[in-house]
Design a protein that fits this description.
The complex is a heterodimer of chains A (316) and B (299). With 316 residues, chain A is an all-alpha fold. Chain A has one domain (7-236). Chain A has helices spanning 7-21, 29-54, 63-78, 84-106, 111-131, 133-136, 154-176, 179-189, 191-196, 201-227, 237-250, 257-275, 279-293, 297-309; strands at 142-143, 229-230. The longest helix of chain A is centred in the last third of the chain and has 27 residues, at 201-227. Chain B is mainly α. Chain B has a single domain (2-287), classed as ABC transporter involved in vitamin B12 uptake, BtuC (Orthogonal Bundle). Chain B is 73% helix and 2% strand. Chain B has helices at residues 2-9, 11-42, 49-66, 71-92, 102-124, 150-172, 174-184, 186-191, 196-218, 228-243, 248-268, 273-287, and strands at residues 140-142, 147-149. In chain B, strands 1-2 form a two-stranded antiparallel sheet. In chain B, strand 1 (140-142) and strand 2 form a beta hairpin. Chain B starts with a helix and ends in a 12-residue tail after the last helix. The mean pLDDT of chain B is 90. Classes of the chains: A mainly alpha (316), B mainly alpha (299). Chains A and B meet through helix 5, helix 11 and helix 13 of A and helix 5, helix 10 and helix 12 of B.
């Protein structure tokens, strides 16, 4: 995981981006929308994994930063008529500031207490979005986001999303594979030891939290424009649980695992909704199977299959 | 600040708000105590506790209204039903996750939330049901300066009754001592020949039954409806974190504080009571990160 991306990896990423860029050429509006939405959740899941996979802190309130980015972008664009070049960075900075503030509280605690406190903060954000009707329109949702003219077209918006998500993911990759990323893994593996060798573990966890919150804010800001609105449900704790499941499904101990998890979960939901109205039960069932049998998610499963096929037997 | 003036100028109004706070707090205490008990012993944060609460409310409706057997049998049935469900869940799922990471446990309980939410829709549909007050408790009693709904006064008594019962069992009986020992050192207890898994199952059962009873008791004024589970669970989290995870007295005090903040908050700043509840939580955590009665985590 911590080895730098080889030539093959770089090529694979390039091919993936090129293939994605070719989607609008297929001429299906449905596919373009689907791809846009998946890209947003890929970034959302990747951002959460900095906190979970790399620093080992389980946040149960990651939707808060997604919602702050989304609401801020929507409100600045629509209510205040800011241009996108100002509104979106401002929204992301706001998510970052919120994450800085919350992280200061949360990193005083660890493990389950950390998870509970992140949950409480996200519900505070939810309660504000719900009750501050004058600004957020409460449970009616903030609808009719003024998306800039040049992004009005479905395909243009897709390319915008692809560019932002690809750039943000690349940045996240660099962060996770920098010296900082390695220290984070050390903190995850053994906080006490990392502390003994001179790492300020609390500051490391704080920084990981801020990185995660900031990138979730970017995902939220795009989502608000794609969705043409933000709803209080986007800040609710079940949304935080959903993105956690994406991370777990893909595999949290790999950088790209959560991206695969986000895409897989999203496609699965679309697929299941065609056949049953009980998607939550399907999701619950999938979750139980992963928890019981696939603790490293789809990426872990792929590795297991590969080592089995290679005939090396592999360590069991 | 109209509400504040009313509170200051009208002691009877303030007194009614106080009773509202206590009765609401006592209802929440019953649910939160179950959550806290399960956490204290099993170290599992159970998101499905809200779903247990919802099932309790629905069960009470079915027994009391649909079958016409009366309210109190409905409450008992809710407790029993949740006991059965929880034994099943503990034996088939939870017991395999006690040694795993907390993330796994949290997500497993979330999977149960998803499945039970759908199960409730299959069993009871998506209608909102009303449960009438129990016989003889539909009116109001004279509490000196004013009349107050008798059912809510009864709730104010049931809460402390459950507190004392739970306290007695955890502090004064052999089972309680074994339970405490299981939280301290599970392996040592097993080495001494105690059947630890059965203690875990028992605690999970009692905690879950409390959620069911709490849901049943809430049903006359908190009508069973889909989606109630994901709201109540967050409120219960706030309560047990304020009080300190795993502490019985903590959840009692936390529930009372929550009731007070919610009711007086909604009078003084109408509509913002939820925000206050979460702000209160943050203030408590700033001063005492492990809650009022909690102990600092080890390691």
């Amino acid at each position: 995981m911590t080895s730098p991306m080889g030539k093959a990896g770089q090529a694979a990423c390039l091919i993936a981006v090129i293939l994605l860029a070719l989607i609008p050429a297929m001429g299906e509006a449905y596919l373009v929308d689907l791809a846009t939405e998946i890209l947003v959740f890929v970034l959302f899941a990747l951002s959460l994994n900095v906190l979970i996979g790399y620093s080992g802190n389980v946040s149960f309130g990651h939707a808060a930063y997604f919602a702050i980015g989304g609401y801020a972008n929507a409100i600045l664009l629509t209510t205040y008529g800011w241009p996108l070049a100002l509104a979106m960075p401002a929204a992301v900075v706001l998510s970052m500031l919120a994450a800085m503030f919350v992280a200061w509280f949360c990193t005083r605690l660890t493990d389950i207490y950390f998870a509970m406190l992140t949950l409480a903060f996200s519900m505070l954000v939810w309660a504000v979005a719900f009750k501050w009707r004058a600004v957020t329109h409460g449970d009616d949702g903030f609808v009719g986001v003024a998306v800039p003219r040049f992004l009005d077209d479905r395909v243009a918006f897709f390319y915008f999303t692809l560019a932002v998500v690809a750039a943000a993911s690349a940045l996240l990759w660099l962060i996770c594979h920098s010296a900082f990323g390695k220290v984070l893994v050390a903190v995850r593996e053994n906080r006490t030891r990392a502390g003994f060798v001179g790492v300020n573990t609390r500051q490391m966890r704080w920084t990981a939290f801020v990185v995660a919150g900031t990138f979730a804010g970017i995902a939220g800001a795009i989502f608000a424009m794609y969705n043409r609105g933000m709803y209080v449900e986007n800040a609710f704790w079940t949304q935080s649980a959903q993105v956690l499941i994406m991370v777990l499904l893909g595999g949290m101990y790999s950088f790209f695992g959560p991206a695969i998890g986000a895409a897989a979960l999203y496609l699965l939901e679309r697929f299941a909704n065609e056949y049953t109205e009980y998607w939550p039960t399907v999701l619950g069932g999938i979750l139980v199977v992963i928890l019981m049998f696939l603790p490293n998610g789809l990426v872990g499963l792929a590795q297991k299959v590969r080592s089995r096929l290679a005939g090396s037997g592999g360590p069991n | 600040m109209q509400g504040l003036e009313m509170l200051m100028g009208n002691p009877t109004f303030a007194f009614i708000q106080l009773l509202n706070s206590i009765s609401m707090g006592m209802n929440y205490f019953i649910i939160a105590a179950g959550l806290s008990l399960i956490f204290g012993v099993l170290r599992v944060i159970n998101f499905a506790h809200g779903a247990f609460f919802m099932f309790g409310a629905y069960t009470c409706y079915t027994v009391a209204e649909a079958w016409g057997l009366g309210f109190w049998p409905g409450v008992v049935a809710a407790g029993l039903f949740l006991a059965v469900i929880s034994i099943f869940l503990e034996r088939t799922l939870f017991q395999f996750l006690y040694d795993k990471e907390h993330l796994m446990q949290l997500l497993l309980t979330f999977a149960i939330v998803l499945i039970m939410g759908d199960a409730a829709k299959v069993l009871w549909g998506t209608d909102q049901y009303s449960v009438s007050y129990p016989e003889g408790l539909g009116g109001a009693w004279d509490v000196g300066v004013t009349f107050y709904p008798s059912y809510r006064l009864v709730l104010c008594l049931i809460g402390p009754l459950i507190l004392v019962t739970l306290w007695f069992f955890t502090e004064r009986t052999r089972w309680g001592r074994l339970t405490k020992a299981a939280t301290q050192d599970r392996e040592m207890l097993a080495a001494l020949g105690i059947n630890v898994p059965i203690i875990y199952t028992g605690v999970f059962l009692v905690g879950s039954a409390l959620a069911g009873v709490g849901g049943a008791l809430a049903s006359p004024f908190n009508s069973p409806v889909p989606g109630m589970d994901v709201f109540i669970i967050v409120e219960c989290f706030v309560i047990v974190i304020i009080g300190g995870l795993g502490s019985l007295w903590g959840s009692f005090l936390g529930a009372l504080i929550y009731g007070l903040v919610f009711n007086f908050g909604s009078v003084i700043f109408p509509n913002w009571q939820d925000v206050f509840a979460f702000l209160l939580l943050l203030v408590v955590l700033l001063i005492r990160p492990w809650g009022l009665f909690g102990k600092p985590e080890q390691g």
